[in-house]
Amino acid sequence: MGHGHGDHVQYGGRVQNARRGDDPVLRASGITKSYRRGPWPFGQTQDVLSGVDLALHRGDVVGLTGENGSGKSTLMKILVGEMRADQGTISSSGRLGYCPQTPLVYGRLSCDEHFDLFARACGMTGHAMAGSRESIYEELGFKRYARTRADQLSGGTLAKLNLGLALLADPDVLLLDEPSAGFDWDTYQKFWILVAGRRAAGRTVLIISHIVVDEDRFDRILDIRDGGVVAR
Asked: Among 61, 93, 23, 62, which Cα is nearest to 199's?
């Protein structure tokens, strides 16, 4: 799931056209989101996001943290278009790759079949898909499960597949929601090598987590507090 080059999404506000150069590759401005709790008409409205502003630049590795229920995953879903904001503007100038917290896979399909399916959805050629898939298998270390069905994978290997699918089309901006949950120590180290490689290639990575560790690996760490985003 994601947007292509030069996309913008408007939620009740003014549309901003994305530009290249030094401008952000992904910008969110004035994002608000509320939920109604309880049965209508007696439920109450709870504000989750109250005017979030966020800008990601080329080569950024950014951490986004906050307490449970603070709106981290809600903001991520809005950024990738899975959820609609109440107000605000999102603009992007590159392809987005999204790794959701809960893997969205098909139990009866093997890892190879998932890569083939997602490559077709992204409009990739067979040659490009094969090269990217083999690189992902090598970087994350799960080539031996290429023909294993998703419903037979361990939690850690399923997390690798989930991340691999987000990486497949070499997105300009990689959006990761708790990506390392289920990783063992070796895979955790491989994950950060992969992130460093994307930074060196001018790609952008946003990682959201309940708790951010290894703070020196990030260029910036942002916190969601009281419905807004603030620099740590």
From this structure: 61
pLDDT tens, 81-136? 999 999 999 999 989 999 998 998 999 999 999 999 999 999 999 999 999 999 99
Question: What is the C-alpha to C-alpha distance for residues 171 and 84, in angstroms, rounded to an integer?
Answer: 22
Reduce the DSSP state of residue 227 to 3 states and report it.
coil
- pLDDT tens digits along 3-20: 444 555 444 443 343 334
Chain centroid offset of residue 169 CA:
13
Whole-model pTM: value is: 0.86
Sequence-ordered list of residues with C-beta below 8 angstroms from that of 115, at least 6 positions apart, any chain: 129, 132, 133, 136, 164, 165, 168
Strand partners, 225: 228
How many Å from the N-terminal Cα to the C-terminal Cα in the chain? 29
Task: Determine the distance from the C-alpha atom of residue 212 to the mean position of all C-alpha atoms in its chain, rounded to a whole number.
Answer: 16
- What does the domain layout of the chain look like in residue ranges? 8-95+171-231
Domain 8-95+171-231 has CATH 3.40.50.300: yes
